[in-house]
Write a structure and sequence with these properties.
Elements lengths: L1 E5 L8 H14 L4 E5 L5 H5 L11 H6 L4 H4 L1 E2 L5 E4 L8 H5 L8 H8 L6 E5 L6 H9 L2 E7 L8 H14 L5 E10 L4 H14 L3 E7 L2 H5 L7 H4 L4 H16 L10
Parallel strand pairs: 1-5, 1-6, 2-4, 2-5, 6-7, 7-8
Antiparallel strand pairs: 3-4
Bound molecules: adenosine-5'-diphosphate and magnesium ion.
Length: 261
């Protein structure tokens, strides 16, 4: 099992959209995937059509109670894609976690306890660098960072990278950046192109070749409780996420992705 956290403390950059559609794309290649919804907003759970009635146990109970991941996961409509859903309870978790001595490692311990059930675990992080995201970074082998193609794209990235460095030193030496994914790319907008060129110049090879276009189907799909890859598998957004998943698999350590070979 390999664990990839999708993180960026900025909101609205495409973390959840990437988590849902990469999860779906990876499941389509034969991987058994778990998507951990770690955002109190629960957008990944909603976007995958998990109703509140199926969130009796959630990522909150796994982090703060003694609920095993196994007992809280829900099957999505996508074959091989399971979800550990989130509820609003999670909004109090950052404060409640402080009480625990093992507060930074609770998610890691819970995921490792069920490691054999999935090939890839994706974590959809909230838009902050608090204890929830730290739990994700401690659990993760790799980090995927969505970056929106806008003027301030790189702003905040140094803060994210210094958090990663701190986690590496203190808790998780194996944590590495899998890649930076440019999202909401608009070919008709010259600024987008400029931003993409600048980001590649600064960050180099860590940036994925695949860019995710701005595509209305990607934003419509969640209101139908479906990944774009099922709602409209031929739209430009779906095709881009399939390509990004392929690039992702190439960058992941090999034993973890044998099933996709
Ligand atoms: P985050 O999880 O980082 O806050 P989201 O994935 O929720 O970001 O995306 C923020 C908003 O932008 C959502 O309404 C989503 O549907 C929309 N969105 C995300 N990616 C795209 C895209 N490539 N094209 C069009 N809309 C997008
Ligand atoms: Mg989100």
């Amino acid at each position: 099992m390999i664990c990839v956290a999708i993180a960026n403390q900025k909101g609205g950059v495409g973390k959840t959209t990437s988590a849902i559609n990469l999860g779906t794309a990876l499941a389509a290649t034969g991987q058994r995937v778990l998507l951990v919804d770690l955002d109190p907003q629960g957008n990944a759970s909603t976007g995958l059509g998990i109703p509140q009635s199926q969130r009796e146990r959630s990522s909150y109970d796994v982090l703060l109670g003694d609920c095993p991941v196994d007992a809280a996961v829900v099957a999505s409509k996508v074959p091989r894609l399971d979800v550990l859903p989130a509820t609003v309870d999670l909004s109090g978790a950052e404060i409640e976690l402080v009480e625990f001595d093992d507060r930074t490692h609770r998610l890691d311990a819970a995921i490792r306890a069920n490691a054999s059930r999935w090939d890839i675990v994706l974590i959809d992080c909230p838009p902050s660098l608090g204890l929830l995201t730290i739990n994700a970074m401690v659990a993760a082998d790799r980090l995927l960072v969505p970056l929106q193609c806008e003027f301030f794209a790189l702003e905040g990235l140094s803060q994210l990278l210094s958090t990663v460095e701190r986690i590496r030193e203190r808790f998780n030496p194996g944590l590495a950046i899998l890649g930076v994914a440019l999202t909401m790319y608009d070919r008709r907008n010259r600024l987008t192109e400029q931003v993409s060129t600048d980001v590649r110049a600064v960050l180099g090879k860590v940036v994925f070749d695949t860019v995710i276009p701005r595509n209305v189907r990607l934003s419509e799909a969640p209101s139908h409780g479906l990944p774009a890859l099922i709602y409209d598998h031929r739209c430009s957004g779906s095709e881009a996420y399939m390509a990004l998943a392929r690039e992702m698999i190439q960058r992941l350590p090999k034993p973890a992705v044998d099933a996709a070979a």
